[in-house]
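pasting for the record
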Amino acid sequence: LTDTNASEINLGDRILKKGMQGSDVTQLKNILIDKKYYTGTIGTGNTYFDEAIEKAVINFQKDAGVDADGIVGKQTADLLKK
């Protein structure tokens, strides 16, 4: 998937890491807010995967008992969506 269709992808469709952006990053951020790992306003559209989101992902991964690398692969995405 390229960034041109990043507005039509869902969390879990691709591996997410810092520096990326898209609607799936927005979904990630909103789930992290919902699960109290990230404070901020619920986003819409395309969100940029910044350091704050990366830290929230790492904290979630630590609590979930998976590799805390800040990268959202299939395993982390599946856990987040539960």
